[in-house]
Amino acid sequence: FLRLLEAQLQDQRREHEEEVETLKNQVEAMKEEMEKQQQAFLQTLQLSPEAQVEFGLQQEITRLTNENLDLKELLEKLEKNEKKLKKQLKIYMKKVQDFEASQAMVQTERRQHELTRQVAVQRKEKDFQGMLEYYKEDEPLLVRNLIT
């Protein structure tokens, strides 16, 4: 029991360390981005008002272009997934149709078998008719023997 607890504690410690490392990397990336933005801001303050507007527009165009590219990539992924799902749907539809057809065949065979059995029973009954031959005057004796 103690070993199990130690193993769980080590797993939690490892997960915590990995999470801390990930967060440190995110903080570093944010610091670098903030420094770049500060440098860009300081550069724009040194520019004339017209140049500041133009720089701002360029930044917005760059941001929109990147966002547009991300959306196109997402659209391509979704279209690819849609094609994959349509193929799977066709495969499953075919399997369902095959299954329904096989079920219909099985039911048809069962009906046919039941009809064959009924026909066979009817034939057997027909086969037995007329096998008993007797004279008309022996009929009361025959009926009495059948009853007993």
Question: Can you give a write-up of this model?
Answer:
The chain is mostly helical. It has a domain at about 5-45. Helices cover about 90% and strands about 0% of the residues. It has helices at about 1-45, 50-130, 140-145. The radius of gyration is 45 Å and the shape is elongated. The two termini are about 85 Å apart. This is MYO5B protein. It comes from Casuarius casuarius (Southern cassowary). Keywords: Coiled coil.
Quick overview:
The protein contains 3 helices and no strands.
List keywords for this structure.
148 residues; mainly alpha; 0% strand; elongated; 3 helices; coiled coil
* CA distance, first residue to last residue: 85 Å
Secondary-structure element series: HHH
- Estimated helix fraction: over 70%
Give the number of DSSP strands.
0
- Outline: elongated
SS summary, helix count: 3
Kindly state the mean pLDDT as a whole number?
86
Derived structural class: mainly alpha
Radius of gyration: 45 Å
Largest sheet: none
Fraction of residues in β-strands: under 5%
- Ranges where pLDDT stays below 50 over 5 or more residues in a row are none
Secondary structure topology:
Elements (H helix, E strand, L loop, with lengths): L1 H45 L2 H80 L10 H9 L1
